[in-house]
């Protein structure tokens, strides 16, 4: 493939969790980037996210973009089946993970997701959320206002995942097509990032910082300067 991009990824455990259940995969060689967030509060979330990125790390890019997408989907579906079997063997309800991934093509970018890990696109300083959280009530909102201490009462069931890998036998990956133009940048992140930052705040950093490495570092830094309540994972992809 002709490289038309640069990318970087960052992972931190945060200030509350004892271990990291997030995982990332950067495959510049085939144009594939992945963030997985093991389901907190469940057994072996780190196992689930690690298994997912390991399997996607083995997917070969042969044929056209649609063959590649089919191979990715097959790998994710197999991980879903394996996690269901592992949970049954261990006698636990769920061993699961969310997923957000980005695939490069010469003519477009494809973003796929399951759960509440997010994909963003930034072009000419304007940031857009291109995924939609698979949670009860739509877009996930944290009960604490960003950067402050005041709280609001969430609606009953708000923020509960409605889809995850390892949760149900039937798995559906949502896909969205985005542009592929020089100057466009993409962010994949676990919900540890948007627990600490609003979309507006993320956009400010995109406008301020251009280099993927500097931007990814800054997003993690802000999360750690605040409460750092969850594991945080971020991948930034820059198109040229």
Descriptors:
single chain; 240 residues; alpha+beta; Phosphatase 2c, domain 1; five-stranded antiparallel sheet; 10 strands; globular
DSSP E strands, number: 10
So what's the CATH class?
A: Alpha Beta
Mean pLDDT: 91
Distance between the termini: 14 Å
CATH architecture: 4-Layer Sandwich
> What gross morphology would you assign?
globular
Summarize the main sheet.
5 strands, antiparallel
Report strand %.
Answer: 25-35%
How many separate domains? 1
Which class best fits the helix and strand makeup?
alpha+beta
Helical content band: 25-40%
The name of the CATH superfamily reads: PPM-type phosphatase domain
Give, in order, the helices and strands: EEEHHEEEEEEHHHE
CATH topology: Phosphatase 2c, domain 1
Q: What's the number of helices?
A: 5
Order of the strands making up the biggest sheet: 1-10-9-6-7
Oligomer: single chain
Kindly provide the radius of gyration, computed on alpha-carbon positions and rounded to a whole number of angstroms: 17 Å
Low-confidence stretches: 148-157
Can you put this structure into words, describing what you see?
It comes from Acidithiobacillus ferrivorans. There is one protein chain. The protein is an alpha+beta fold and 240 residues long. It has a single domain, classed as 4-Layer Sandwich (Phosphatase 2c, domain 1). It contains 5 helices and 10 strands. The chain has a 5-stranded antiparallel β-sheet with strand order 1-10-9-6-7. It has a 5-stranded antiparallel β-sheet with strand order 2-3-4-5-8, with helices on one face. α1 runs antiparallel to α2 (65-90). It is globular and about 50 Å long. The two termini are 14 Å apart. The relative contact order is 0.21.
